UniProtKB/TrEMBL annotation:
One Pfam match: RTC
Annotated TM spans: none
Keyword DNA-binding: no
A GO-annotated cellular component: nucleolus
Subcellular location: Nucleus, Nucleolus
The name this protein goes by in its record: RNA 3'-terminal phosphate cyclase-like protein
SUPFAM superfamilies xrefs: EPT/RTPC-like
PANTHER family, per the entry: RNA 3' TERMINAL PHOSPHATE CYCLASE (PTHR11096), RNA 3'-TERMINAL PHOSPHATE CYCLASE-LIKE PROTEIN (PTHR11096:SF1)
InterPro entries: RNA3'-term_phos_cycl_insert, RNA3'_phos_cyclase_dom, RNA3'_phos_cyclase_dom_sf, RNA3'_term_phos_cyc, RNA3'_term_phos_cyc_type_2, RNA3'_term_phos_cycl-like_CS, RNA3'P_cycl/enolpyr_Trfase_a/b, RPTC_insert
Length: 379
């Protein structure tokens, strides 16, 4: 057999999507100059952990990393899925939310339904929380024809930065193929649901967040329910903190989200802390107001998903059968634009983009790549 032909790439940008699309399209990749000019060059811990996660759910996957971590050779294998009896430790440099999106899209096309336990940070201010994944991404998947049976995320324990300690169990069914969508009606907000959480701090933090959040959104909509999830003992992980996730559901079945989390500092002397660290000490009232305003800002954008999930929406459209999918989003985010470029590079598929000045939004449509799960028999 001849040597594999590797697609040559440079830099660390879009690492997750490159890995995902390379696996789905069975394209071996060679990534060079990974942070070669930085003080700490090479792959980060969370990127190596993602590679190991892909290795655990794929068979015959080949990974080579040079000594400095600035060069990666990745040859995809067969996506197996199945029940993973060994938990995967995501580490503490990025949260579990960083791993959930690529893992979910990948294992929809596995040979067997996936069940896996992920350990690490469940909520932080960098990545979408596990609460947002459950209340926003799962409904988006159902929109594309993913069955509800076997689709779940269970939060067994919370984990906050810097020490983590959270655990979740992800269950995913498999599909023969996704369903193309015509999703351009964002509808009107009919209800807002939310979840506050606190770990190793007083439950009063949650009460303050709920009160502040309701002060912003209750005058605008009456159907608002915010649930509290106070954890203590082993279920509270290894670090104190608190946070909130809000999701607005519209009359057309759109789910728009916003969330954040705060890790409580133990050191009372904050005079020498950087601005980012001081921001982590924000009171719960400010957190509630901030997330409520962020949610309203996402709603005003007039899209069927929020800016955080544009990339996921475009990926699912691209992986649909060879039929036209049409979607509406607000202002294209940087992540959304990078996703469109990665889809073009790996799947040779382009989106037709048309601004809609009347609604200050953007319409996109494409003919799907025709991704099929050949291991699943047609019933």
């Amino acid at each position: 057999m001849g040597k594999a032909s590797y697609k040559r790439l440079k830099g660390s940008r879009s690492f997750r999507q490159r890995l995902l699309l390379a696996t789905l399209s069975s394209t071996p990749i060679l990534i060079e100059d990974i942070r070669a000019d930085e003080t700490w060059p090479g792959l980060r811990n969370h990127e190596i952990s993602l590679l190991r996660l892909f290795e655990s759910v794929c068979d015959d996957c080949h990974v080579e990393i040079n000594e400095t971590g600035t060069k990666l050779k990745y040859k995809p294998g067969t996506i197996m899925g199945g029940r993973q009896y060994r938990p995967h430790d995501c580490g503490v440099s990025r949260s579990i939310g960083y791993f959930l999106e690529p893992l979910t899209v990948l294992c929809l096309f596995a040979k067997q339904p996936l069940t896996i336990k992920l350990k690490g940070i469940t909520n932080d201010s960098k990545d979408p929380s596990v609460d947002t994944f459950k209340s926003t991404i799962l409904p988006i998947l159902k929109r594309f024809g993913v069955p509800s049976e076997g689709l779940d995320l269970k939060v067994e324990s919370r984990g906050l930065p810097p020490n983590g300690g959270g655990e979740v169990i992800l269950s995913l069914p498999i599909v023969q193929s996704l369903t193309a969508v015509n999703w351009i009606d964002e509808g009107f907000v009919k209800k807002i649901r939310g979840t506050t959480f606190s770990t190793r701090v007083s439950v009063q933090f949650e009460n303050s967040m709920i009160k502040a959040t309701r002060g912003i959104i209750n005058p605008l909509i009456s159907d608002v329910h915010i649930f509290s999830d106070h954890r203590s003992g082993p279920q509270a992980g290894n670090s104190p903190g608190y946070g909130i996730s809000l999701v607005a559901e519209t009359t057309s079945g759109c789910f728009i989200s916003a969330d954040t989390a705060v890790s409580q500092a133990r050191d009372e002397d904050t005079s020498s802390l950087a601005d980012d660290a001081k921001r982590d000490l924000m009171p719960p009232e400010d957190i509630g107001v901030g997330v409520a305003n962020a949610l309203l800002g996402e709603i005003i954008q007039c899209g069927v998903v929020d800016s955080t999930h544009q990339g996921l929406l475009f990926l699912l459209c691209a992986l649909c059968p060879q039929d036209v999918s049409k979607v509406r989003v607000g202002k294209l985010s940087q992540h959304g634009v990078e996703t469109l470029r990665n889809i073009r590079d790996f799947l040779n598929l382009t989106f037709f983009i048309k601004p809609d000045p009347d609604k200050q939004s953007v319409l996109l449509n494409c003919v799907g790549y025709g991704m099929k799960n050949l291991s699943r028999k047609v019933s």
